[in-house]
Specification:
about 300 residues, alpha+beta, Beta-Lactamase, six-stranded antiparallel β-sheet, 9 helices, 11 strands
Length: about 300
């Protein structure tokens, strides 16, 4: 009986030791799990912070961000988009993009989006007019890219845009000014010239060839070729006028001189010029001006 009791006690003791060992192992596992949970919590917090930073970045971005699904309905627009074009997210999410585009530009949008389905790796740029809440439209430039799943299927199209209204207006004013200048040059039958000091190349318009010959005359010369066309007795005077202008001694020069025509005769020209462009240190980079044929005036004065 005692022997049986001893055997039972030994078995019980062994079982207790096994339980203690299992308990220790469980404690170790719990500790490891707690460490993993803490690490997971830290990672989650970091991810949450990064997500908040990303959302903040998207919302505070000065560019316009938008996404549309395969049905051309908005799935996302940033706050800059809403503020600029006078919409709320509730008005846009799940709705087709058409009301946010000038009717005449819808075709360009459809073509840009459609081209991504043909070649999804490209970036498609397009100019689109967007509504101005105060009336009229903004000129904007957009770049479209396809967002795809691992299988390569397009899930959404993302568009990043910026306002180019001011640039378009400036270009329009520049174009109008250029047209007015062209009209003045044409009406005054003036030849224009630009001397690029860095390359020593002189560029002239076609009126130059009309003045010096009836056939086409070279309109791109180096400075030496151009000087060779000036009458030998007038070269120093022309050089001095240009040099004084480049050095800043005079704001511009005006000179009457003779230039060699294709038939070997000399034509009297009135020339003027000034420095058009300087670098950051103030050194002249470009000097230009006009020529006018005054041969008839000179001949009349001699009579």
């Amino acid at each position: 009986m005692e022997k049986q009791l001893q055997t039972t006690q030994e078995a019980l003791q062994s079982h207790i030791e096994e339980l203690q060992t299992a308990n220790c192992s469980l404690q170790i596992q719990n500790k490891e799990l707690r460490i993993k949970n803490e690490a997971l919590e830290v990672a989650y917090q970091q991810l949450f912070q990064k997500d908040e930073m990303l959302v903040s970045l998207l919302e505070s971005n000065t560019t316009y961000l938008a996404r549309i699904d395969t049905q051309s309905c908005y799935t996302y627009v940033n706050q800059t988009f809403c503020d600029k074009f006078g919409f709320t997210r509730e008005q846009l999410i799940g709705r087709h993009y058409a009301p946010t585009v000038h009717p005449q530009d819808l075709g360009k949008c459809e073509k840009a989006v459609g081209s991504l389905y043909t070649a999804p790796n490209q970036v498609v740029g397009v100019e689109i007019r967007k509504p101005n809440p105060q009336g009229g439209y903004f000129d904007t430039h957009w770049e479209f890219v396809a967002i795809r799943n691992p299988q390569g299927e397009i899930l959404e199209v993302q568009a990043v845009g910026r306002d180019i209204t001011a640039q378009k207006k400036a270009w329009q004013m520049l174009r109008e000014e250029h047209n007015r200048l062209e009209l003045l040059i044409w009406g005054g039958r003036l030849a224009t010239w630009d001397w690029h000091l860095e390359t020593n190349q002189v560029k002239l318009n076609e009126r130059w060839s009309e003045i010096l010959s009836q056939t086409r005359y070279p309109t791109n010369l180096d400075i030496q070729q151009w000087e060779n066309l000036i009458h030998p007795d007038d070269r120093d005077m022309v050089r001095q006028g240009i040099e004084d202008t480049i050095m800043g001694k005079i704001p511009h020069y005006e000179i009457e001189f003779r230039a060699l025509a294709e038939n070997g005769s000399y034509r009297w020209l009135f020339g003027s010029g000034k420095v058009i462009d300087r670098d950051e240190s103030g050194q002249p980079q470009l000097i230009g001006g006009i020529f006018q044929d005054i041969s008839e005036k000179q001949q009349s004065a001699k009579r």
